[in-house]
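User: Predict the structure for this protein chain, please.
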Amino acid sequence: MFRKLKFCFLSFSVFCFGISFAQSPRDYAEQVIKKLTSPEFSGRGYVDDGMKKASEEIARQFEKNGLLKLNDSYFQPFTYPVNRIESCELKINEKELKIGSDYLVGAGSPSLQGTFHPLVFDTSVIDSLFEWDDRSYFDREMERINHHTVVFPDVRFPENMIIRESTANQFYHDVPQIISSGGLGVSVPLIIEHTSSKFIHTLSPIQTSTVDLFVSSQSVPEEIRSVTIDLKSQFISDFEAQNVVGYLKGKRSDSLIVLTAHYDHLGKINDVIFPGANDNASGVALLLSLSRIYAKNKPDFDMVFIAFAGEEAGLKGSQYFTSHPVIDLKKIKFLINFDMVGTGEEGIQVVNGKEFSKQFNKLENINYMYNYLKQVKIRSAACNSDHCPFYEKGVPCFYIYTLGGKSGYHDIHDTEVSLYAFDKLVALLTKFIDTLSPVN
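Assistant: Here is the predicted structure, written as structure tokens:
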């Protein structure tokens, strides 16, 4: 076994599994990432059919690489709810701000147009809501406020706004929904959150009654006299998306090896794109690179390759797939999910490594034998990517992401990745998959 693996490693730059490469996996990956992050795909999101265009490009690559269709199609369509931010123009004291660098819009915000002036009131009670270390404290404070121990002014849409300072971009996840539901006895159309932290964009499956703006502290004047906003958003209860699925026939069909990655990202607002190079054009590039290898070298088992939609909206694509499988989930011998694999200067992290220690030990031993990566770190179960719905169905699986290097995350700066360990990661994975064969 050692000699066999050693031979493949020494020959990898020219041959692997007896296959000659016109270009290395890394070269191919660079092309894939450059394509998927280009303006053509509008951030692979919800504006300008960005996600649909990306799925069609991946299907073209599947076909080019020799993958077969399941049920006469590469696509598995499904729907889910999402609040789509289509455009936003914002001025503070008549100065125009740029989305993505000066401010972001809360993902659940509805459309709003007009000029607003500050609401002046005692913020000490609202301040108390942000002691997140103890959730029970938050609940007690909300109960106290709802019993009218504190009385707020009777403010009606669309005359006023609330201004706060914070270092967290997650403000709107809890508090604005509570405010907009009338729990505080006040209707608040616009909340402005000063933030000194990095902007992190997200998606929302609901539309709230509150518009939330996160404005960089550097872009906020000492005194806010007016805010003029023209925000257009649309709640879509049944946004149409599609997973992309292809497969390869192996030497035997009694078991399946499944490789997955999500292709969607956050899209764009105005002319500002959230490109998602690391998250997760890099994972798609790895998925496609492995499909090329195994299309030219028949695997021991049938292999299924899945590019999921809707991960950023809450694992929608993988949840739909496991609820409506087009393969027998019980036949999956092992599944590996790739999400944010564009760096690697510090090695890789393996989620579910502790849950599947036998397979993790194989992966770690291969890496140790050939010194591919700086480290292969083990991590326990975490429902933080598309492996999770499979794990919950009893499918043995890993979720792998790279460590080290520089990349953005859910922002406009996730434009490029180093692919520092890409070729070595491909070599490690192909050898690991080989250990899952019937003879090992």
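The chain has a mean pLDDT of 82.
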